[in-house]
Fold:
Amino acid sequence: MLKPMFVAECRDALEALARETGDGGPALLVGAPWLDGGKLYNAVLLLDAGRIVTARYKVDLPNYGVFDEKRVFVAGPPPGPIDVRGVRLGVPICEDIWTADVVECLAETGGEILLVPNGSPFELGKADVRTQLAVARVVESGLPLVYLNQLGGQDELVFDGASFVLNADRSLVLQLPAWEEAVVTTRWTRGADGWSCAPGPRVRQPEGVESLYCALTTGLRDYVVKNGFPGVILGLSGGIDSAISAAVAVDALGPDRVRCVMMPSPYTSAHSLEDAAAAAEMMGVRYSTIDIGPAMQAFAGMLAEPFAGTEPRHHRGEHPGALARHHPDGAVQQVRPHGAVDRQQVGDVGRLRHALRRHVRRLLGAEGRLQDERVRAVDLAQRPPPGRRPGP
Structure:
């Protein structure tokens, strides 16, 4: 949104789409970034009769959680309804229905139906929150409401769709599926009390763990597809966590775009090998094993060996630190005076070297246990109180 070229290309695409509405085509309401008077707005535009007819701008710009709209957009003025071929549609944009002001303004200026475009990210329990908000705006305005939500993944966000329609009497007359694209034509009738929507499909909504699984598969699918990746490679350990990860990938992309790799070491049990192979076979994915034992041994040996060459001589016995220079006689001189930072560095390096060597001995079987019994667990009462930084 901060790139002028991107905003300009959005405008070009909208103008091309608007031309498609000529010669008897449908009128369209489209959300887009829109530059007006040198200011960038989060907008909904009416495309009809081959041109861009009008625009409405988002008023309430969220700036919390995953939202950062105040950095990108300018808040629009209080909107009036849009006349779409004789029907006055009020178009509050997403956050605009989270408070009463925008909907109240639309109702007072002659709005007949509320059409709410949303990019509402998925959260557990969010569907109930949306419905309650929509009911509150219907009660306050006396107008029917169409809640249209985005579907799909975009980077770290995922949108669940689940669009719905409420009549002015607060009845839910249409509920589209979550996590699935759907195109439905709604039928509206104008009566003495205003517009009402005829009943349509009401699809059951997934809940709890089911909805979380749908979010995982949808987010992964769109991340891979939108970035043009050919597929994914997963480590399969034989455990439940990697098996679930592989199942998500298969359900999102299909087994032909998932490859699983088992990387056994000398410590991998036969059960893990059998379980990983069985899981791969059940999911129908490509499966291979790569023995990492030699790599582990080589790495462990590298850590166990002392540093190559002679030990450097330190000026005044200090650690050379990050800024050191070599003297012609072979000594390493300290560029800056010794101090607390150098002593801290000496201590950190020594502790790290000791921990690595102790870990290597365990890997090589010298001690035979994953937990060094000589290291006593620290009692919770001995831990420093919150806010106090432990010593070096």
User: Anything to note?
Assistant: The chain has three domains: 4-206, 230-291, 313-376. Residues 317-324, 332-338, 366-384, 388-392 have pLDDT under 50 and may be disordered. The two ends are 46 Å apart (CA to CA).
